Amino acid sequence: MISVVIADDQPLVRGGLRMILEGEADISVVAEAADGDEAVALVLAHRPDVLLLDVQMPGVDGIAAMRQIATHDVPTRVLMLTTFDLDEYVYHAMRAGASGFLLKDMPGEDIVSAVRQAARGADSLLAPSVTRRLVERFAAAPPKPSAAGLGRLTARELDVLRLVGRGMSNAEIARELFIGETTVKTHVARVLMKLGLRDRVHAAIAAHQAGLT
Q1: Residue 123 gets which letter from DSSP?
Q2: Of 62, 127, 131, whose CA–CA distance to 97 is shortest?
C-alpha cells in the first residue's frame, strides 16, 4: 500500500486529491496538512511513501518545507503541486530535492500515475508543459552533449532521448515507440550512462541542446 500525505492550504483541493487517490486500491492518504510547518511534522511522524506538497502556502511555503524535509533521513518522495507552471518554482523545487512537479489541473489519472511512479523511485516526474519550459530556460545547466557522446547512442536510444526531451513519461514513450516500459527504462538508463547525465531532467536538457526536440 502506498502511503500519501497531502499538503495544501485549500481544503477543497486536499479533499479532491484525497478522493482521487483513495479511489485506488493501492493508495492510502494517511494525513493532510494546511501549511508547510504541518507538512514537515506529518512527514516526520508518518514517514509516508509520497508527499503531495503545494508550492504556495501561507507561512512556510512548499519550497522551504521541501528543504527542511531534505535534511531528515526519511524515505518520502515529494511531488510539488501548483496551479502555476512558473519556471522558477520548478527550478527551486528540483534543486531542493523534489521528485517531481505537477500541475493541479492535470487529469486525476495522471496524478495517480505520478504518485505510483514516485513511490517506485522514478526520478524527476514533470508535467510535459513544465518540462519544456524548464528545459528552455535552464538549458545551460549540464554540459552540452558532445557529438562523440551522441554518436555512442543507438538509433533507438536517440529516439528515446528525443521523446524524453518532449516531456514524455516512460509509458508515453513505450506507446509512441511500440515497446515495453521496461525496455524504455533500460534505454533511458543507458542514455544517462553514455552521456554522463545525472537524471531525466538533465537528459531532457541534453536533448534540447542537441537540437533533438
Answers
A1: -
A2: 62
Contact 118, 77 (CB under 8 A): yes
Axis crossing angle, helix 181-195 with helix 155-165, rounded to the nearest 10: 90
Closest CA to 51 of 103, 108, 104, 8: 8
Digit-coded pLDDT (tens) for 131-156 = 555 555 554 455 677 788 899 999 99
- At the top level of CATH, the class of 140-209 is mainly alpha
**Reported CATH class of domain 2-135:** alpha beta
Question: What is the gyration radius of the CA atoms in the chain, in angstroms?
Answer: 17
C-alpha cell at 148: 562523440
- CA torsion 152-157-160-162 (nearest 10°) is 30
| Every domain of the chain and the residues it spans | 2-135, 140-209
What span, in angstroms and rounded, lies between the C-alpha atoms of 77 and 80? Answer: 10
Closest by CA to 138, choosing from 92, 191, 205, 206, is 205
Q: Report residue 205 as a C-alpha cell.
A: 536538457
Whole-model pTM: value is: 0.61
Q: Is 142 helix (H, G, I), strand (E, B) or coil?
A: coil
Question: What is residue 154's three-state secondary structure?
Answer: coil
